[in-house]
Amino acid sequence: MLEPISISLQALNLPSLLPVGILIVGAIFIIVLDLVTKSGSKSFYTMLSILFILLDLGVVIGYYGEARGMFDLVLVDGIAKISQIIVLVTSAFFLLLAMSQRRFQEFSMAEFYALFLFMIAGFQFMTISDNLILIFVGLETASLSLYTMIAMHNRKKAFEAAIKYFTMGALAAGFYTMGSLLFYALTGSIEIHEIANRVILNDNLSVVALIAATIFMIGALGFKISIVPFHTWTPDIYEGSSAALAGYMSIVPKIAGFVVAMRLFEALLNLNVLWIENMFYILVIATMTVGNITALVQEDVKRMLAYSSIAHAGFVLSAILIGTSEANSGLFLYWILFMFTNLGAFTVLWMTRHKKNLWDERYQHPFVKFKGLAKINPFMATMMAFFMFSLAGVPPLSVFWGKLYLISAAVNAGFIYLAIFMALNSAIAVYYYMKLVIFMFLMEPASEEKAIFTTNATPVLKVVLAVAVAFTIFASLFIDKILAFIIYHVTMSGF
Amino acid sequence: MDYILSLVVFFPIVAGSFAFLVDAKSVRVFGIAVAIIEFFLSIVLWLGFDYGIDGMQMVEHFSLISQFGMSYYLAVDGISLFLVILSTFMTMVALFALSIEKDIKNLIIAVLFLETTMVGVFLSLDIILFYLFWEASLVPMLYIIGAWGSERRIYAAIKFFLYTFAGSVLMLVGILYMGHLYYETTGIWSFAITDWYQMVLPFNLQLWLFGAFFLAFAIKVPMFPFHTWLPYAHGQAPTIGSVLLAAVMLKMGTYGFVRFSLPLFPDASIYFMIPIAIIATVMVIYAAMVAYAQEDMKQVIAYSSISHMGVIILGTFAMNTEGISGSIFMMISHGIVSGALFMLVGVIYERRHTKMMREFGGLASVMPSFATIYAIMLMGSVGLPLTIGFIGEFLSLMGFYRIDWIITMIAGTGIILGAVYMLSLYKRSFFGPLVNDENKKLKDLNFKEYSALIPLVFLVILLGIYPKPVLDPISSSVKNMIRIMDKKVINKESKEILYKANSIGGGR
Amino acid sequence: MYEVIAFYTFSLLTIALFGVVVISKNALYSMSALAGGMIFIAGFFFMLEAEFLGVVQIIVYTGAVMALYAFGMMFFDTTKEVRERVHAQKVIYTLAILVAVCVVFIVSGPIVGQKMQALYPSIEGVGNIQMVGLLLFTKYLVVFELAAIMLLVAMISGILLVSDRMNLDLTLKDEDDKEREMI
Amino acid sequence: MEKYLYITLFAPLVGSLIAAFFAAKPKELYTGILTSALVGISFLSSIVLLNYVDADTILHVKMMDWISVGNLSIPFGFVVDQVSIIMMVTVTFVSTIVHIYSIGYMEHDKSFNRFFSYLSAFVFSMLILVMSDNFIGLFIGWEGVGLCSWMLIGFWYHKQSASWAANEAFIMNRIADLGMLMGLFLIYWEIGSFQYDIVFANILNLNINTVTWIGSFLFIGAMGKSAQFPFHTWLADAMEGPTPVSALIHAATMVTAGVYLIIRASDIYFLIPDVGYVIASLGAFVAVFAASMALVNRDLKRIIAYSTLSQLGYMFVAAGLGAYWIALFHLMTHAFFKSLLFLGAGNVMHAMNDELDIKKMGGLYQSMRATAILMTIASIALAGIYPFAGFFSKDKILEVAFNHEAYLLWFALFIGAGMTAFYSFRLVMMVFFGEQVHKRLGFHPHEARPFVIYALTPLALLSIVAGFLEYSFHAFVIDLLRDYKFTLDHSVGWMLIVATTAIALSGIAFAVYKYKRGGFGAGVESLGIYKLLVNQYYIPQFYNNAILKPFAAISTFFWKQIDLKIVDATVDLIGKMFYNAGGKTRQIQSGNLSSMLRWMVAGIAVMLVLAIILRPMV
Amino acid sequence: MIGLAHYLVLSGILFSIGLFGVMKRKNLLMLFFSTEILLNAVNIGFVAVGRFYGDMSGQIFAFFIIAVAASEVAVGLGLIVLWYKRTGSIDLDSLQMMKG
Asked: Are residues D485 and D611 in the same domain?
């Protein structure tokens, strides 16, 4: 007979859930508000959402309690904290992009903001747990919101993107469950740390099955962080969604995916199964290379950035392969630096968003659009150039430091060839970033009309841009602090 | 005086940022003013330079990224001092001669940014900082070539950027590996080159690391067969771009060899001495011959740069004070002379909008001053004694003679071939009858051009006659460097070679 | 013995039905086969003493999901035969068979070395439903709540996506000139 | 005394710089006068120095440090000793006369000022060359005179041939200079200094092999500057320059720098008689070789140029065989009469409106008496007839060869002497006597301006009497240079003198006899030997076809085929490879959802297969 | 006796059928059917493994998978409705605007 169970609130460690709780309450609040009054405007919802996000952020930063909570389901360790901060900061900035000049369907609907907050909550759940179920449900929550939000952009392309993303996401969910099943079958557990423990304890379990489980997990998480060959969605989805959302997608879902991957794969890589290590080696290099060389031939800036984000993901994935705490710190450092640069780049695209596709039948942001931008709008062109060079890894701009740190981590861990591959890939990547700079600076403008490049610009966007560019240029000045923070938290949580 | 180095490094970029606010009409004057101030700052640096110290001086050192051991570390010694002055001087002079009207503001800003990076490269002693300036220097140059060049400028700019960038990424890996090794041995993260000088590396590691650094420097120099970006870059760049590229940016590569490759990897450097010398020799002769075949005046000078850089490499790898000092002196002399030659080509290009030699002929009679200055620079380029060109070439070749006289002799044919292509250029363009009607009304140099060229002529002759103030600090710093190398060398044969290279006598 | 017979019967039926789902050209057949397959899977659940899940399976899938699909089908008017132009069929077969063979090969072997200690063992004498309830409201409470939110998200999304508001396009309605002055 | 040294050295430089300021301006007479005066001052102060220098006192000053690096220290140091003062006096003397002469000669040239600037610059360089107290100083002067020679040969730059000849001279010299540089490097790395005194003091300690290398390398340099075979072609082509230039640079001074180098480095060559013998042999060869080309040439200046070559050969024989003072002596006397000859030829050229073909002249004696006399004096001196200067120096050289038992060399020189006499008088006869062909061709020759003629008389005087200075010269120079011991019998010596004089006289006689009657018939021109000689043994053609053309072709090949099509194309290919690979990987992204899903499944499938296949790896 | 392996094999086979369907189906609606098969296949496995270990986690996982499947259906249908309204087709090949 079932005995009554009594659990002390203390043991539940409810504060560990407080951050997510705030968001969920916020989201529901927005929905309710929308039901009650129809007067909420775009700026109102944006600011309200950002308020909730900031509240959340404050709580996350201020949380120094137990790592475990809610029956050990929740795990708020160092990397969870860092990744939540990244998620929240990024969300806040990208949500600001809703304050654009043009009106867009999605931003006029309260549901968008609710979904946005739900999505963030989903990602947060992914990061604060090592239970495969919670991760799965969190991931699905976030994904479902994201699909909807993409579709809410209300263009045919957006629908296409959403459907593609959704369908592939469903397949990835299948992979995820299959992988979990195999792990479960192997170890009888669905908690990552427990899985790892049991694999170590159990000598004669089928290694092939372990590998198979890993493979399905690579398929599932690889889809999220766009590892080749699970990357095919990336360019299409970026192209289909608004620049603001595309930029967001290049950062947040991936960092959530990376945290899960870090938790899971590093536990597996620690098992010293050579096959997994080699497979990761191949995947890292394939992802970097395919992303880079495909980006070389793109005609659209957003699409190019999509491929470039694949390459960056591959670059960062190497941290998981390397697996030292230096590499893991490098991953977060890289992503923070990458975030601000990408924020800037996508903000520029967003600002130049025109209601019609003036330059190309298909693309909103083809390279030719930026021809001679330096003459038309030198300020914007200069900023974009900074972002491009930063992404290319030209020192002293922000992403360079991330690359430096990651390559250094590779070298320090003895992955010399990996380091060389990483370095060579950054050399290839230079071309396509430079291509945009060349279009902007070295070519003559097609028309002198300045206004078409700023139809979507507002002071808010300009502020975002200024923040991004300041961070990109002066990254070297505060990297020390960021790095100290990251290293402290990463080592604290044992990665 | 405490922060003079930072001032010298960052003054142009700060001033360049201010230039955004200056209106286009007066921005050229603003640029010149900044360049003059910067030049005087570098002169102040020189005045404050203590000739008695052969190591680093005016050190500015504080930690920038402590987790990573990266610091802000600037210092100057005899090797870098004059390269800094060369950079500021050539920038100033190039701005004097600037006659571009289009987007002048952007150009001035780009040039000032470039100046910061160039000076930064020579003054950074933290290698990450060095790498930072090294890479950052590509960006303004990309812009200068790409925006103000001639028809194929974009191709040339891309090629320049990609090639040099790709070359240096391996160096980055090498740098990080060195940092790792330093950490392994000492337990401290440091990227300060002076710290690295203390580290003795096993031979096979030296070979690999030398290779990683080599590619970056070799492409920048550019060494055969990595040189093909240079003719395009020079051929397409506007005058000011070519001047700065030839005068300063190429020197970054050879400076890198002197500052990093030799003292960090002495055994590997000695091990690769002969192969590199052979490459250098090939460079000297091959580039000289290709230069002879050119039809475009600017290309001749571009290839001549390659040829001369070969001699510099040869001197660098002579491993003795004479050779290395000579090669450093030649960096300066080549900077001045090739800069001046590019400027001169710019003068005629501006008047005729062509650089093809067949379009010219007999220019000496319409533009005598131009021809005279050209001739002086030409003589500097072929290394006539009492011009600046001789000393470096002489010392470099002499230095390497101690290592291998046959290679030296073959490379020495460079002085013959140099005369061949230069004189044939001069003959084709300046001598002979004046046939082309378009050339008959050409105007001789104007004030702007004089103001740029006269200082150069003056320097070419002055430093040719009295190189002592420049050579002395170079020589003592190089001696110091060789002492470091000597301390670090681990192989017995390398030690012997190093000893032999630096001693007199002992038979052939 | 009954178990063996039941297993094989159910297996064959599920495989066959799901085969129909993926092969059939008629959406209606396909959907019916899917519903059938779901029920047989519920059968498996019952066999495996997971009564709660079995019931949930039937209710959720056959009840809710299939109903939704049926509505969808009616909306899309796909009751008649669907024509699909499938390109490079060989690739599909190869890949599917490859995965099948690999997975079967991997799982058919002894994948577990020794019996692990269950983390959340079902307690003797406690029914399945109780057991599930116990776990759902203790250990997996957070997940349960999150699932609720997920369903809320799905609901909002579903409503939103088919609502009239999605037919509007605010951007195109904007008039450029008026806006420009504000910049 | 130092101030005289500096005056000697820098007066020409000052003149040059002043003239240079007016280089682009129209003619200013005073630039000519000023530079001439300054060179004259230089001459006078060198005379003062000549008086100052004796057996015990030489002047050695260090002006400043030039290069000091590592162990190397090169100062600007100057030494006035017995050898350099002879050179200084000779150089400044001839220069002064050439300067004055040029005022007249260049009268109508629009680049008058520029000319004097160059000419004085040359004098300065030459003085550096001879006065330096170290090898590098010598090399500076060496290159300096090369530069001035380039500027002066190409003085009329609008003439293609002139600028071509200038470049040829410069480049040929550069080739030889490389050899010299090698020698200098070797000296440095063996001895550690370039100072003459240190080098010569330590040269004994070196291994003889090394010394041989040093000697050979330095001689290569000397060969270039003194236009010895195979570098001889530039000298004849250098006649494109204005005639005073030919007189000063390509006869009296610069080309003798090679001989000066050997004499200067006599302490080195003394140790390596074998190399000396090679030098002598080459000298003897050139003496005959050049003389033979002079026999048939029709170009007034080229004949004299070949004669210069030939005489340089004589000097090298003397220097090579160790008779350094004799070489120096011949150098000096040769400077006098050869410059006189050239300057005379200049007068003729002016008279003939720059026509150089001696076949078109003839009978000019009528219109230019003074010039004819001067040139005849010079020719006699050149032919070596007693008591003219050439006799004393040249005969001594033949004696040396005989004394050395180098009979073959002697014989060559002997033949050379005969040829010299013949071609000299062939020239005199064809220009000044015989039929007045020029009248037919419409020339109206006139004598040069009187001051020009007066300027030449000192040279003529010296051509006649310089020989008698032999004993004092010998006594003066021997303090520094090794003496040469004659072991010949007195009678043999006399016999040699008689023989040489005889062959010279017969050469003259033959020439006079033959050309009085209009010379050889046309038949001689079809002889193979004539063609060979007229075409300079086909050596210029050979150089053109074997070196110049292939060089140009290879250069173009390097550029078009290797640089553009291989090196550059490879780089581009690598770039394109990546780009094209991008085009390939792009096809993954077909945009079709089905295929995107397939890629995902394929990823899983491939990995699973790999997992199974590569199980041993796990 | 039916062991765990039997169930897992069944699960694997059904999963592969699902994959096959996902790859083959061009009708978006029917493609979604296939994704349901994927999830259901895994569910069998989870329950079987849970039973094998005597562990409840499998069932819980399966439970949540069902929940997820249900939500996905809602969103997925919403999306294709949207598409259908816009284009009048639910053929997968109509989603071809973006590529390259």
From this structure: no
Residue where a domain terminates, one of D80, D113, D133: D133
Q: What is chain D's Cα-based Rg? A: 31
Which tens digits make up the pLDDT trace of A426-435? 989 999 999 9
> What's the token pair of residue B54?
């052969």
Distance in angstroms (rounded) separating the CA atoms of residues C142 and C120: 17
Residue range C1-84 forms a domain whose CATH class is mainly alpha
Compute the nearest-CA separation of C155 from chain E (Å).
Answer: 7
Residue D495 in contact with partner chain A when CB distance is under 8 A: no
Which of A431, A438, A476 comes nearest B154 by C-beta? Answer: A438
A136·E64 Cβ contact <8 A: yes
Range of the domain at E59: 4-89
Cα D603 to Cα A232: distance, rounded to the nearest angstrom: 11
Among the listed ranges A197-211, A335-349, D171-185, D567-581, which one has the minimum average pLDDT value? Answer: A197-211
User: Do D503 and D561 fall into the same domain?
Assistant: no
The tens digit of pLDDT for each residue in E27-44 reads: 888 899 999 999 999 999
Two tokens, residue D60: 């050695």
Q: Where are the alpha helices (DSSP H) in B4-152?
A: 4-19, 27-47, 78-96, 104-123, 127-136, 138-148
| Upper half-sphere CA count for residue A183 (Cβ side, 13 Å) | 31
Please write the tens of the pLDDT for every residue from A268-323.
888 888 888 899 999 999 999 999 999 999 999 999 999 999 999 999 999 999 98
Number of neighbouring beta carbons within 10 Å of residue D581: 18
List the single best residue of E15, E16, E22 to mutate versus D (max D Cβ within 10 A).
Answer: E22
Contacts C102 to A, Cβ<8 Å: 212
Question: What integer pLDDT is reported at residue D616 of this predicted model?
Answer: 55
At residue D56, does pLDDT exceed 90? no
Shortest CA gap C118–chain E (Å): 5
Domain containing D305: what range?
A: 134-521+530-534
Q: How many domains in chain D?
A: 3
Number of domains in chain E: 1
Q: Which residue of D has its CA nearest to E16?
A: D601
Cα diameter, chain C: 83
Q: D107 with D138, same domain?
A: no
Higher pLDDT, A354 or A259: A259
The reply to whether D160 and D232 lie within a common domain is: yes
- Domain end call among D102, D133, D164: D133
- Assigned domain for E100 exists: no
Least CB–CB distance from A108: residue in C153, C170, C179: C170
Asked if residue E96 is part of any domain, the answer here is no
Q: Are residues D424 and D558 in the same domain?
A: no
Cβ–Cβ contact E54 with A under 8 A: no
- Which chain E residues are within 8 Å of D591, Cβ to Cβ? 95-100
Q: DSSP class of residue A226?
A: T
Residue of E60, E68, E85 for testing the chain C interface, max C β-carbons within 10 Å: E60
Q: Are residues D140 and D235 in the same domain?
A: yes
A174 at the E interface (CB within 8 A)?
A: yes
Same domain, D439 and D332: yes
Q: From CA A93, how far away is CA B242, in angstroms rounded?
A: 43
Structure tokens at C118: 């269950």
Q: Does chain B reach chain A with at least 3 CB pairs under 8 Å? A: yes
Residue with tokens 């720059």: D354
- A163 at D interface, C-beta within 8 A: yes
CATH of the domain at E64: 1.10.287.3510
Give the model confidence (pLDDT) of C32-62 as tens digits.
Answer: 999 999 999 999 999 888 889 999 999 888 8
3-state secondary structure of D368: coil
- Are E42 and A174 a contacting pair at CB < 8 A? yes
Q: Which of D301, D248, D25 lies closest to D122 in space, CA to CA?
A: D248
Neighbours of chain E (3+ CB pairs under 8 A): A, C, D
Q: Which residues on chain D are in Cβ contact (under 8 Å) with B401?
A: 182, 185-186, 189
Together in a domain, D68 and D145: no
- pLDDT of C86 > 90? The answer is no
Residues of E in contact with D602 (CB under 8 A): none
